């Protein structure tokens, strides 16, 4: 059964349009369940009716014609109840409604299951049979499983259909794809699809600009792979027995197979670019081999894939050398990474869309720092087909819009213009202090990582750096930077901000931050080897970093060192001991300077409960609310599927924030926060009231937070905090805070969906 299920899903996955997908479903499900009828009714979002959309066994002429209102008939009942309806004799059921011309009179047995995607009923999948029988439990279980697996594919096909139709007809229906907010702001621009290196399944589909050039590139790539394989075969020649050698002949045979080459060339001549033509032909061949019964032949799918990938790698290498980008580029990819941000010149990059990841992924954090509107987790986006298409992204609400109606596009343009005006307006605050109406000063610091953040931060009037993510320069290299290289990087940061304090966090890798040259592969990376756990296990890495920091601080004295992911006192003591030792050794080596202040991040629940014990041992504390929220709520910060459960204003998170502030105050140790909550005007007002001493945020958020805090009284914020601490739900807290902001003239910080 599992095999059948997998095959059907795979076949549906490759459908070009929603209609294709549905026809495959009804045909394959009817065969698999050995029943007489299988049909799909899809919900029409404008009328709310369930339209008879595909069938095997009923009257096809009624496709797109027959429909049922929500709640009407058995189909409506399945949709309304959101659960299966299994009947021996459908006509006897009170909800049964006869649809003329469908031809279902002779079918008595009925089994219908809802198709639900992200809590939305997309449609109903029905099987029917002439003789009166109850479909048994295993039939029901099969259909439910099928429908659950297909829901995502159907949702995807709905959007793909729109895009495809658009490509053929020059225009298409508007489509809105939901993701999650990554970085605030609106962007209107042209999609540039970046694909992971040599992934046949992620090649953007686009037309060839110059067919002769594409043909030549394909021929050269083929030739290069042929040479590579021949070279490997020659090198290994004497070590291989004749059977092994035959394998290389098979490889070369596949490359020489005129069927593959000819088909790719035919598609290029038909207008496709070489990479797209290659990926389509190769995927078809891979599928063909995978479907074979014989295991030896099935295995050949792997060889075909490997060869296709090699040819693609050559084509991509050539393409990268030549690529140019449109002025308003929106970068789109399956999983954008921090390093992929560097691929497109900054002045041309206006937005980012990542199919995977969520608002707390590190690429989103960097995008916020750079002020690039971003949507993450747009899982239903047929991203490979978006190349060169006009796209709108709404980074406030996490949505992507294709083919918007002129009025909708106009509204987005207006918000974009208002945002620009607001930015200009906020620039005037640059040299003003962040001070509440009743005179309370709140230092606003910044989070940095890239050198580009420095200028931006200083322009925004940052008073210090609350978090310098040292892993960023590590991520952008292909090996660990040496102690001297690190010293120079850290020196640049310290000098740029001196005499303002710069808080350098020791290497925080693991989780979603993998170094290509130090891979950490784990089933549960966020609960695994990350942050201080890695560096304590590798004192050579930790010590080199500490030495580089202390050396860089010589003559400046504005360094602070901060430790990430600490979850027990022993880790803290061990790290402190290593830092003290490094400092002593450097003094002996003749490097002058005081021991810098050392702080700890509170970002796991254990640290909240041990905040006082930690505070006793350090000079400052800083809450990492991004991780703290993820661990308190048990919600993976990168997983778009649970992104709507990641509430930074969850009552449990607020209680933890209050507890940490109280613990630090009891030990007279300053408390800051460097998670994203600090950069949110709603969060900032509450943190002010909780008694946080420093708010550290991305540079882009700083002017907004300054504006928000300059508009309130500390006393009002305290009253507000008292009020929201009595609320039990994050949504209620969020609404109350929005109301508070608009009562204080800050409607411009509230962004509700525009369509
Ligand atoms: C945090 O977890 O809140 C934090 C600031 O660290 P990072 O986002 O780099 O994990
Ligand atoms: Mg963290």
Chart the SSEs and their pairings.
Blueprint: H1 2-13, H2 18-33, E1 37-43, E2 50-56, E3 67-68, H3 73-81, E4 85-87, E5 109-117, E6 120-129, H4 137-169, E7 175-178, E8 180-183, E9 186-193, H5 211-236, H6 242-256, H7 258-269, H8 274-290, H9 295-322, E10 329-333, E11 349-354, H10 362-370, E12 374-376, E13 390-394, E14 399-402, H11 406-427, E15 444-448, H12 452-459, E16 465-469, H13 471-475, H14 483-497, E17 502-505, H15 532-537, H16 539-552, E18 559-563, H17 569-588, E19 598-602, H18 605-609, H19 611-615, E20 620-623, H20 625-633, H21 651-666, E21 671-673, H22 681-690, E22 694-697, H23 702-710, H24 714-724, H25 730-743
Parallel strand pairs: 9-10, 10-11, 11-12, 15-16, 15-22, 16-17, 17-18, 18-19, 19-20, 20-21, 21-22
Antiparallel strand pairs: 1-2, 1-6, 2-3, 4-5, 5-6, 7-14, 8-12, 9-13, 13-14
Q: In words, what does this structure look like?
A:
The protein is of the alpha/beta class. Helix content is 46%, strand content 15%. The protein has 25 helices and 22 strands. The strands form three sheets. It has an eight-stranded mixed sheet. Helix 1 packs parallel to helix 4, helix 5 runs antiparallel to helix 6 and helix 16 packs across helix 17.
């Amino acid at each position: 059964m599992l095999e059948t299920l997998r095959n059907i899903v795979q076949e549906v996955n490759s459908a070009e349009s929603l209609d294709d997908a549905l026809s495959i479903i009804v045909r394959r499900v009817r065969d698999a369940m050995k029943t007489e009828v299988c049909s799909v009714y899809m919900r029409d979002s404008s009328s709310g009716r369930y339209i008879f959309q595909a069938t095997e066994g009923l009257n096809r002429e009624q496709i797109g014609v027959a429909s049922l209102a929500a709640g009407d008939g058995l189909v409506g009942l399945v949709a309304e109840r959101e659960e299966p309806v299994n009947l021996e004799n459908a006509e006897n059921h009170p909800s049964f409604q006869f649809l003329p011309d469908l031809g279902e009179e002779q079918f008595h047995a009925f089994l219908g299951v809802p198709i639900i995607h992200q809590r939305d009923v997309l449609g109903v999948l029905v099987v029917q049979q002439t003789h009166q029988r109850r479909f048994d439990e295993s039939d029901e279980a099969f259909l439910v499983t099928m429908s659950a697996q297909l829901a995502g594919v159907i949702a995807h096909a709905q959007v793909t259909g729109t895009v495809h139709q658009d490509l053929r007809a020059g225009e298409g229906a508007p489509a809105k794809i939901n993701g999650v907010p990554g970085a605030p702001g609106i962007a209107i621009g042209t999609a540039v699809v970046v694909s992971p290196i040599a992934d046949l399944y992620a090649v953007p589909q686009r037309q060839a600009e110059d067919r002769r050039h594409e043909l030549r590139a394909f021929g050269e790539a083929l030739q290069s792979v042929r040479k590579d394989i021949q070279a490997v075969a020659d090198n290994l020649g004497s070590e291989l027995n004749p059977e092994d050698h035959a394998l290389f002949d098979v490889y070369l045979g596949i490359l020489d197979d005129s069927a593959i080459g000819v088909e790719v060339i035919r598609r290029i001549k038909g207008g496709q670019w070489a990479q797209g033509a290659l990926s389509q032909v190769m995927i078809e061949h891979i599928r063909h081999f995978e479907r074979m019964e014989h295991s030896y032949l099935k295995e050949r799918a792997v060889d075909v894939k490997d060869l296709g990938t090699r040819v693609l790698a050559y084509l991509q290498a050539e393409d990268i050398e030549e690529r140019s980008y449109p002025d308003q580029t929106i970068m789109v990819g399956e999983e954008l990474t921090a390093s992929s941000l560097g691929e497109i010149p900054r002045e041309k990059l206006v937005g980012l869309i990542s199919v995977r990841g969520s608002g707390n992924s590190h690429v989103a954090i960097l995008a916020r720092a750079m002020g690039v509107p971003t949507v993450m987790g747009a899982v239903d986006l047929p991203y490979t087909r978006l190349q060169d298409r006009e796209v709108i992204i709404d980074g406030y609400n996490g949505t992507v819009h294709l083919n918007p109606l002129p009025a909708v596009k106009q509204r987005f343009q207006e918000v974009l213009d208002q945002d620009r005006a607001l930015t200009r307006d906020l620039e005037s605050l640059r040299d003003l202090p962040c001070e509440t109406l009743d005179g309370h000063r709140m230092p606003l610091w910044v989070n940095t990582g890239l050198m580009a953040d420095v200028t931006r931060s200083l322009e925004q009037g940052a008073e210090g750096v609350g978090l310098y993510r040292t892993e960023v320069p590590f991520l952008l290299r292909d090996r660990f930077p040496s102690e001297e290289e690190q010293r120079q990087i850290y020196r640049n940061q310290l000098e740029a901000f001196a005499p303002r304090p710069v808080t350098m966090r020791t290497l925080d890798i693991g989780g979603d931050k993998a170094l290509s040259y130090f891979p950490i592969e784990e089933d549960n990376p966020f609960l695994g080897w990350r942050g201080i756990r890695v560096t304590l296990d590798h004192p050579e890495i930790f010590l080199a970093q500490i030495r580089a920091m202390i050396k860089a601080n010589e003559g400046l004295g504005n360094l602070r060192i901060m430790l990430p992911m600490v979850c027990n006192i022993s880790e803290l003591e061990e790290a402190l001991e290593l830092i003290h030792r490094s400092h002593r050794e450097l003094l002996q080596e003749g490097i002058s300077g005081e021991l810098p202040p050392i702080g700890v991040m509170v970002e796991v629940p254990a640290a909240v409960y041990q905040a006082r014990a930690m505070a006793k041992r350090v000079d400052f504390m800083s809450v990492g609310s991004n991780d703290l929220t993820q661990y308190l709520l048990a919600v993976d910060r990168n997983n778009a599927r649970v992104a709507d459960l990641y509430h930074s204003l969850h009552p449990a998170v607020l209680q933890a924030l209050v507890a940490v502030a109280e613990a630090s105050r009891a030990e007279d140790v300053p408390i800051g926060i460097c998670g994203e909550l600090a950069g949110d005007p709603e969060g900032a007002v509450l943190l002010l009231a909780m008694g946080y001493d420093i708010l550290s945020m991305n540079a882009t958020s700083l002017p907004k937070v300054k504006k928000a805090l300059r508009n309130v009284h500390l006393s009002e914020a305290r009253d507000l905090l008292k009020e929201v601490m009595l609320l039990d739900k994050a949504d209620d807290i969020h609404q109350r805070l929005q109301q508070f902001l608009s009562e204080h003239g800050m409607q411009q910080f509230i962004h509700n969906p525009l369509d």
